[in-house]
């Protein structure tokens, strides 16, 4: 076995594989191709490995002819944490969509909407943390048969040199800022200045984190040059979530409390922007349920799965 070090990724791969193309976004490595002795090549892509535990097998012409999935134990753990993250975002997004509807139509006391938002924020943070765990265990070990695996399972790793990890880590920090804002919303008799400092500012910081996270995710899935990839489910998830982040940001700006009147700049935009943004995250979370490792991965000695094209 040989080891390749690309921006701290630390790949362990079969010694007979020769390093080929390395794709980058800035100083981040987003994909690596190795050439095999039989004339075929194997391509590791950051998001595909992190979310699906999968590499592509290509022929001498560069056409995709098959896939290599993770070892069953690695795939099972990845699928479980992916399901936790996806379901958490669906529930969190659903509650964030319900909260503004309650506020807009005056259903129940204002505290009801605040509680709904707070519970939704807890699920958002859970989804963010599960995404960090997933990125912390991105498979980088490749055995002689070509199977991917994580070197060891960990609930936390510091990997700021990996664009996928950095994207979800910024997202997780954003959910914590949202949580701070949601807790502060329970304070009573706040002045406009206090409201903007304790509620609006953390909310805006959370929105900015979401936008930065989405931008990094687009760079990762597009390998440095942001564009349209309609045939890639990962691109759809990232794109829908980024639209949601933009809507959250607009709603956040509109929530600024005017000192002269102690009212929000545009309460309608606050409610409907939050609602629409939350719906985007619900859709993204639902799609993420299908961006997972194969349910029963099996790899042949040649590196491609039986029955796969």
Characterise the protein shown here:
This protein is an alpha+beta fold and 309 residues long. 53% of the residues lie in helices and 14% in strands. The chain starts with a strand and ends in a 21-residue tail after the last helix. The protein has two domains: 2-69, no CATH class; 72-288. The longest helix has 33 residues, at 72-104. The protein is elongated. It has seven helices and nine strands.
List the helices and strands and how they pair.
Elements: E1 2-4, E2 11-13, E3 18-25, E4 28-35, E5 41-45, H1 46-52, E6 54-58, E7 64-69, H2 72-104, H3 110-136, E8 141-142, E9 148-149, H4 163-184, H5 192-222, H6 233-254, H7 267-288
Antiparallel strand pairs: 1-2, 3-4, 4-5, 5-6, 6-7, 8-9
Helix pairs in contact: 2-3, 2-7, 3-4, 4-5, 5-6, 6-7
Based on DSSP secondary structure assignment, what is the total number of beta strands?
9
Instruction: Give the count of helical stretches.
Output: 7
Largest sheet: 5 strands, antiparallel
Radius of gyration: 22 Å
Average pLDDT across residues?
Answer: 86
Structural class: alpha+beta
How many domains in all? Answer: 2
Helix content: 40-55%
Question: How is the quaternary structure best described?
Answer: single chain
| Sequence stretches where pLDDT stays below 50 over 5 or more residues | 297-309
- Tell the overall outline: elongated
| Biggest sheet: strand arrangement | 3-4-5-6-7
Helices and strands, in N-to-C order? EEEEEHEEHHEEHHHH
Through-space gap between termini: 27 Å
Beta fraction? 5-15%
């Amino acid at each position: 076995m040989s080891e390749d070090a690309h921006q701290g990724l630390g790949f362990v791969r079969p010694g007979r594989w020769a390093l080929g193309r390395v794709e980058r976004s800035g100083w981040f490595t987003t994909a690596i191709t190795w050439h095999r002795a039989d004339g075929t090549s194997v391509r590791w892509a950051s998001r595909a490995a992190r979310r699906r535990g999968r590499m592509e097998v290509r022929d001498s012409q560069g056409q995709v002819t098959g896939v290599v999935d993770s070892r069953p134990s690695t795939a099972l753990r990845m699928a479980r944490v992916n399901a936790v993250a996806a379901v958490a975002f669906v529930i969190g997004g659903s509650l964030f969509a319900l909260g503004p509807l309650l506020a807009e139509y005056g259903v129940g006391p204002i505290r009801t909407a605040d509680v709904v938002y707070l519970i939704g924020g807890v699920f958002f943070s859970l989804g963010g943390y599960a995404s960090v765990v997933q990125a912390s265990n991105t498979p980088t070990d490749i055995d002689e048969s070509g199977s991917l695996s994580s070197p060891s399972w960990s609930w936390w790793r510091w990997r700021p040199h990996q664009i996928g990890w950095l994207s979800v880590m910024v997202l997780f920090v954003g959910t914590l800022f949202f949580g701070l804002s949601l807790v502060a919303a329970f304070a009573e008799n706040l002045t406009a200045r206090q409201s903007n400092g304790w509620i609006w500012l953390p909310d805006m910081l959370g929105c900015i984190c979401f936008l930065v996270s989405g931008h990094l995710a687009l760079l990762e899935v597009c390998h440095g040059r942001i564009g349209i990839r309609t045939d890639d489910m990962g691109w759809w998830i990232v794109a829908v979530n980024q639209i949601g982040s933009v809507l959250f940001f607009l709603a956040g700006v509109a929530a600024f409390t005017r000192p002269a009147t102690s009212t929000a700049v545009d309460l309608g935009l606050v409610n409907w922007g939050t609602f629409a943004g939350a719906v985007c995250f619900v859709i993204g979370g639902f799609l993420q349920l299908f961006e997972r490792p194969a349910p029963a991965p099996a790899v042949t000695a040649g590196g491609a799965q039986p029955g796969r094209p």
